[in-house]
Every structure is written in structure tokens, then in C-alpha cells.
Amino acid sequence: MSTDNTYDRANRLAAIDATGIRGASYAVQYRFDQNGNRTWQHVRYT
């Protein structure tokens, strides 16, 4: 069983959680790399 889907699901949920606040001009998203470490990235809305 591949773990790719697990990480992909976690990343999608993280993105939804981080961007759940409406009206924000930017959000901080986090992803999980293949080692299970959380990495942060800033996402700006236009």
C-alpha cells in the first residue's frame, strides 16, 4: 500500500484548514514531506 495517498490527503486537509478563514489576503499552508515532516509555505491570494 502506497503512502502517497495518505500524504496527499494530509496535505489537502492542511491546506483546507489553513485557508478556511474567508477574507484573508494570504494564508500559511503546511505540507508533509515524504519523511512525515511538516513544511510551511505562504500562499498569497490575489
Question: Could you explain how this protein is built, in words?
Answer:
This protein is α+β, with helices and mostly antiparallel strands. The chain has one domain. The protein has one helix spanning 4-18; strands spanning 26-32, 38-44. It has a two-stranded antiparallel sheet. The protein is flat and about 25 Å long. 0% of the residues are buried.
Straight-line N-to-C gap? 39 Å
SSE ordering: HEE
Q: What percent of the residues sit in helical stretches (DSSP H or I)?
A: 25-40%
Largest sheet: 2 strands, antiparallel
Key features of this structure:
30% strand, 46 residues, single chain, alpha+beta, 1 helix, two-stranded antiparallel ribbon, 2 strands, flat
Quick recap:
By secondary structure, this protein is an alpha+beta fold.
Reconstruct the topology from this structure:
Blueprint: H1 4-18, E1 26-32, E2 38-44
Antiparallel strand pairs: 1-2
